[in-house]
Structures are given as structure tokens and as C-alpha cells.
Specification:
Elements: E1 4-5, H1 10-18, E2 24-27, H2 33-38, E3 46-49, E4 59-62, E5 65-69, H3 74-79, H4 81-86, H5 88-95, H6 100-103, H7 108-112, H8 125-131, H9 158-165, E6 169-174, E7 177-182, E8 202-208, E9 214-220, E10 231-237, E11 242-248, E12 255-260, H10 266-276, H11 287-304
Parallel strand pairs: 1-3, 2-3
Antiparallel strand pairs: 4-5, 5-8, 6-7, 6-8, 9-10, 10-11, 11-12
């Protein structure tokens, strides 16, 4: 059997996957997966490239709701007039991912399902062998904390943060039919099993039901381009006065805080965020600084909305 497959439909992709006994990787834009394969972090024998499935590349607004095909590139999202006019926070989030060149290939679905990262895991095979590997690879302890029970690798999706505060829903295709669920529900607070997904499924569409009345978005990283997030904060207030604040890059999954604005205080917001973000020293930026920046960003958002 061929090792590299390019199906033209979702059904064909799922059929191929069913024959490979889990020994495969779905390949979207490939900007992240290629690094994982180079570092021998993804060792699946077969690759199923989804780039030829044209039905997954689309941007439409129907009855006031935005629908994004999962294979739509981030570059198309950034340059879309419809998104810029009605959902600018999504365009802003997409614009912060990687570089302009990579955004021409990277897809919205791939960014939402980007693999969690850790400075002790995302290294070459030789480097990992030298430090003794870790819980997520072949070791028996977390190299960050020294513990044996939990992995704290970070979710680093920039677009997830923006889409979660917009109440986005996703559509998944499986051999048994269609599954629809809230985007926030696919993320698990675990550094090893970080996505709650069927073993054989393909993300096909992201739907955003509401336009934000007000929005705010900011990403912390060492350089202004290329780097994965060290902290991302997205926030919206809808027409009903509900505030949604999502933090990412500082825990195993995105952290959503959702309350009526009139019931929220800055002190309470910071307290909830710091309590729920399981931030450890597994990023290039110092741990203390990243924790302090949670306070700084939340204060900036609070000030901007007043």
C-alpha cells in the first residue's frame, strides 16, 4: 500500500484511514506536522493529505452565521473582507500565526488542532534521549515538574482563543456520521491526551453564530512573528452583556471565563484566571514573567472595555 495518500473527498479519506489500523497522520497544511515528523515525534507510517478535498476550503456567511471550511488557509481568512468586516477578531488571531509565507499553507483546522508544545518535548530525538525523555514520550517523569502523574504541555492555538469567545461550533465527520459540538469542548486539560475526538474523524467546518459587540485580542511571544504563543488572551462582549475571556498558551487547554459583565470585577477575573491556568516552566519565556503578563493583559482588556 502507498505510504502517502491524497483523497479527493472526506469519505475517501475516512475509508483509507479505516484500512491503516491507526498508523496514519491526517495532514492539513503540514506546517507543524512536518516538524513533528522531522523530530521523530510523529512516527506514523502513513500520511493522508487532505489538501485535495475542495469542499473543505470555503468562507461563507449564511443567515448571519459565519462558516469556515477546515482547510481554508489562514492567509485567506486574514484577507477576507467578510471576516474583516464582521468578525475582525478572527482575522487578527489568524494574522498572529507564524509568518505570512506559512499562513499561505497553514489551515484554520490545522491551527485549531495544533499539537500541544513543551520545551522539553519539542526537540530532536538526540536531545530527548540526552535528557531522558518525558511522560509524553517514553520516559516516566515530567521533565518540567519532576512528577510522574501529569504532563503540562501547552495548547498554543491562536485561532482557538478567538473562536472560543465567539461561541464557535465545529462539525466532525466520522465513519458513523456527523458530530457537531462546541469548539471549547474538544480541548482536554491534559498534556498527553489534549483533544477529545473520535479515533477516526475529520474536522470539516467551523461555525460562528454571533458577531461580537466589542472584542480584544493580544498575543505574547519573543518575536513579532513566527513564534508560538507564550500567552494569548481574547475577549468579547456580546449584545446581551456577556463577557467571554479566553486565555491560551499558559495551560494544557484554553481557559474560558464567561460571566455577565455586570457581575465581573477585575480582581475576580484575575483570580479565576490564575487559579485555572496550570502554568509551568515549559516555555522559552520565564515562568514568573508569563504569570505576571496574565495580570497585565487582563488589566489592559478591562481598561479598554471601560
Amino acid at each position: 500500500m502507498d505510504y502517502y495518500h491524497t483523497p479527493s473527498t472526506v469519505d475517501e479519506a475516512l475509508t483509507i484511514a479505516g484500512k491503516l489500523s491507526g498508523n496514519y497522520t491526517f495532514f492539513a497544511g503540514g506546517t507543524d506536522i512536518q516538524n513533528y515528523r522531522k523530530q521523530q515525534l510523529d512516527t506514523n507510517e502513513y500520511v493522508i493529505d487532505l489538501s485535495e478535498i475542495e469542499e473543505l476550503d470555503s468562507i461563507t456567511i449564511v443567515d448571519g452565521a459565519l462558516h469556515l471550511g477546515a482547510m481554508t488557509t489562514l492567509d485567506k481568512i486574514v484577507s477576507s473582507d467578510e471576516i474583516q468586516n464582521h468578525y475582525p477578531i478572527i482575522a487578527e488571531a489568524a494574522k498572529t500565526v507564524a509568518t505570512p509565507v506559512l499562513r499561505k499553507t497553514a489551515t484554520i483546522g490545522g491551527n485549531l488542532l495544533v499539537t500541544n508544545r513543551c520545551t522539553f518535548y519539542n526537540q530532536s530525538q538526540e536531545w530527548r534521549d540526552g535528557v531522558g525523555s518525558c511522560l509524553r514520550d517514553v520516559g516516566d517523569i515530567c521533565q518540567v515538574t519532576g512528577g510522574k502523574n501529569d504532563c503540562y504541555s501547552r495548547n498554543v492555538s491562536d485561532t482557538a482563543t478567538a473562536l472560543i469567545v465567539l461561541g464557535a461550533e465545529i462539525t466532525l465527520m466520522t465513519p458513523n456520521g456527523i458530530i457537531q459540538k462546541s469548539l471549547k469542548d474538544i480541548y482536554l486539560p491534559c498534556g498527553i491526551k489534549f483533544h477529545d475526538l473520535e479515533e477516526r474523524c475529520i474536522l470539516t467546518q467551523i461555525s460562528v453564530p454571533i458577531e461580537p459587540k466589542k472584542w480584544w485580542y493580544k498575543k505574547l511571544r519573543l518575536r513579532k512573528t513566527l513564534d508560538f504563543t507564550s500567552l494569548t488572551v481574547a475577549a468579547t462582549i456580546d449584545t446581551a452583556g456577556i463577557a467571554r475571556v479566553c486565555l491560551n498558551g499558559v495551560s494544557m487547554s484554553p481557559i474560558l471565563i464567561e460571566k455577565p459583565l455586570k457581575e465581573l470585577t477585575l480582581e475576580g477575573l484575575i483570580s479565576i484566571a490564575r487559579k485555572n491556568c496550570k502554568t509551568v516552566d515549559n516555555d522559552l519565556m520565564p515562568l514568573k514573567y508569563r504569570r505576571e503578563m496574565i495580570n497585565v493583559y487582563l488589566k489592559e482588556w478591562w481598561k479598554s472595555f471601560r
